[in-house]
């Protein structure tokens, strides 16, 4: 699982963003949750502080907090400048402006860094990546996947998506994925086939609108639930 850190943009999201991105209710938050591809999100840190249970999985966790923070500091201004250059193309509802987005990402990574080494020791941050995860069957109630599947449809093929969703359904009773559009802001070419495949297998499929939107049209979340044992 050799990951090259200088290819990574370690932007993470907050607990509040996760709640809005995945339509998480208070009841959901009290279930056992895994976040796949969490990166430097502060979701785990904030949830843990409230006595809730999250295990985050990402190849990024092979690096130290210093390395992750250094990489963030190397890329943050470039990314925000790119967003500023195209600021009319984004939706400024949750984040109020490119500077507000930067402020939120800095806040999130600080929170993550403050929790990371402790969380690693207690196995809340585990090194791993789709499409194969080292957890037992049905270990979690909910598996969340933010800004990986569907978003990178142009880089990750249909089989990768199919195997990844299957793996998440193996380890959790329910899977939620956001967003459903690509980096080019187009409807993912894999989405309809994935939905059809799991619907035919008897899973309950919901596509829900969510409050969070930064990419135009990126305000929907896919929920796949096992309704059989």
TrEMBL record:
<keyword id="KW-0489">Methyltransferase</keyword>
<dbReference type="GO" id="GO:0032259">
    <property type="term" value="P:methylation"/>
</dbReference>
<keyword id="KW-0808">Transferase</keyword>
<protein>
    <submittedName>
        <fullName>SAM-dependent methyltransferase</fullName>
    </submittedName>
</protein>
<dbReference type="GO" id="GO:0008168">
    <property type="term" value="F:methyltransferase activity"/>
</dbReference>
């Amino acid at each position: 699982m050799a990951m090259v850190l200088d290819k990574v943009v370690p932007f993470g999201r907050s607990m509040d963003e996760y709640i809005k991105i995945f339509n998480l209710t208070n009841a959901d938050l009290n279930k056992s949750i895994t976040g796949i591809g969490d990166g430097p999100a502060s979701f785990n840190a904030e949830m843990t502080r409230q006595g809730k249970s999250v295990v985050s999985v990402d190849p990024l966790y092979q690096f130290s907090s210093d390395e992750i923070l250094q990489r963030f500091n190397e890329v943050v201004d470039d990314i925000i400048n790119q967003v500023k250059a195209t600021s009319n193309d984004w939706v400024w509802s949750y984040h109020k402006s490119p500077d507000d987005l930067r402020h939120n990402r800095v806040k999130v990574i600080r929170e993550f860094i403050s929790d990371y080494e402790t969380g690693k020791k207690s196995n809340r941050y585990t090194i791993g990546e789709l499409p194969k995860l080292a957890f037992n069957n049905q270990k979690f109630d909910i598996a969340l996947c933010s800004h990986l599947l569907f978003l990178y449809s142009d880089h990750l093929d249909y089989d990768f998506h199919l195997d990844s969703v299957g793996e998440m359904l193996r380890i959790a009773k329910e899977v939620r994925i956001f967003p459903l559009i690509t980096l080019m802001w187009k409807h993912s070419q894999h989405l309809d086939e994935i939905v059809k495949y799991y619907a035919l297998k008897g899973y309950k499929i919901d596509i829900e609108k969510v409050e969070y939107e930064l990419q135009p049209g990126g305000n929907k979340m896919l929920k796949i639930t096992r309704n059989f044992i």
